[in-house]
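Q: What would this chain look like folded?
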Amino acid sequence: MSMLDINDLNVWFGHGRDRVDAVKGATFTVARGESFGLVGESGSGKSTILRAISGLAPLWSGGMAVDGTALSKQRPKAFYKTVQMVFQDPYASLHPRHSVDQVLGETLHLHGFGDIDARVVKLLDDVGLGQKFRFRYPHQLSGGQRQRVAIARALAPEPELLLLDEPTSALDVSVQAEILNLLVDLRRDRGLTYVMVSHDLSVVGHMCERLAVMQNGQIVEIMGVETLRKMEAKHPYSQSLLAASV
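A: My prediction, written as structure tokens:
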């Protein structure tokens, strides 16, 4: 069974004359355990798809299903034990006055877990930080460390599907590879499914098995990563993206 099914998805913002159609007729399927990429220029609708899946974009039509369960306009609490999202900017996604312990502990408590102390320590170990970071605040952490905390928070409910919205684009180049390798290891160790948005084709080539190319809110081509590596895209826009990345 597939982990994620998107069928003729339309997402828009505003109403009437102010309406902006951000995603138009998107259709794709992500298998359980697969890593699937969404690529395209800024404003092409990539991140909007993730926001629609997660419930952060309320104006949509079409079909979305996670692990065979159709999504409605309101997400039940159980949804967030299955699906979590890692945002682009680790500086904005963590509360500045909450320590790492509070960030992780509150998430675990919200999802009904016991033995929170041990779970916090395990999460920090899993993302390569360790206990010495437990009582630090975001301003005491580097960008890469903050993103590790954000990943740990996303892992806390023990999800099966992670939505990754350009998780390394706000980080220094030297740190990006570390975070990407961490995500590769976590996916393997936990059997996770990823949907990853990126404007960087080399990142998608490293992380994903398949990808969808988006232009002006529409998916123009879905290809395997081998097609990407061989520069054998069929759609003219996909070909121009590949040519620009060389």
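The beta strands are 2-13, 20-31, 35-39, 60-66, 69-70, 83-86, 161-165, 193-198, 210-215, 218-224.
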